[in-house]
Structure of Diacylglycerol kinase accessory domain-containing protein:
Amino acid sequence: QVLGWGRTLPEKDIVGNKLSHLEDIISERLENSESARLDIWQVTMSSYPSGYARESGDNDRQDGHDIIEVTEPKEPNQKLVRKMSNYMSIGVQGYVGSGFEAHRAGNRLANMFVYAQESSKWVFWRRFPDLNQFIKNITQNGQVVLECPTPAERKQNTEKASDIPQMTNNPIDFVIQNIPHIWGREVDLWGEAESGLESVSNRSGPTDPEQWVPQRANDGKVEIMTIENMVSYFKKLANFRQHVSRLGQLNTPFDINFRPPEVHQKEVKKIKSSSNWEKAKALLKDKRRHKYEKSNTICIMCDGEFYEIKDPKSISFDCFAQIWTLGHKQDNINMGRLVRDEVNSRNDQ
């Protein structure tokens, strides 16, 4: 889609009689195309020794989905390396997708039903955990460029002055985007935003809008934004996208760092006092905590594949390569997103 060729092919029989359909497709795309660059990112998901990083779902699926991410062993592994071209979601899409992977069917229509069913469970019966409970900060070249305090930490730090940018909200989803293309559509969340900068205080460095450049898929940078709650999520799905909590625009390399496992211990275990009242308060607090927070498990979606990390340590991003693609260009108006990015890059020079 981002190349401008649409969602599907016009003919179900791609090859055709004596390769006629295939010949038409190749001819059209050579005649109406323009070369365009695309950044490929290497993503390294790692956990603490007490945890693991792995693909979600069943290791013995019989749906023909036999790529290496699914067929490789699921034994505990503290590191998982993948390539990313489009975007990553930490939170909402990861949690929904983890349940979807466990019941993935063998055809597209059935998969749509399974995904809708899994989504409805989260919308009506469950709730998504606040990611501040997991994510500690974002670092670039070893320097903290954004802190992600919990509500309790923000209350404690009100009297302490800090020049480091801080998140001011409690999101349920982190979106790390390379191409303005999300949710199976060409949705330009970052570029269409008109407000939402209040999501970070003390902006500087990569979180400072004055240092941002137009989002492109070939600039060696990714954009990070958040979704605060389900209302915000549905608004963006329904095309109400003027308010987007844009955190920053980062180039390579950078890391999203998580809180150590001991932070997620049961509150009762943290109590040193023998007071029954203190123990009762700790028990009540434990009961209110989200089950994924208790188990310290974060779920991730990266380019349509789903992963989970138990006791997460960090997710590292590094611009791995830049490839050439052929995107649709009929004229100066009708062109794919990647081609438009390439044309704009040339005009900037």
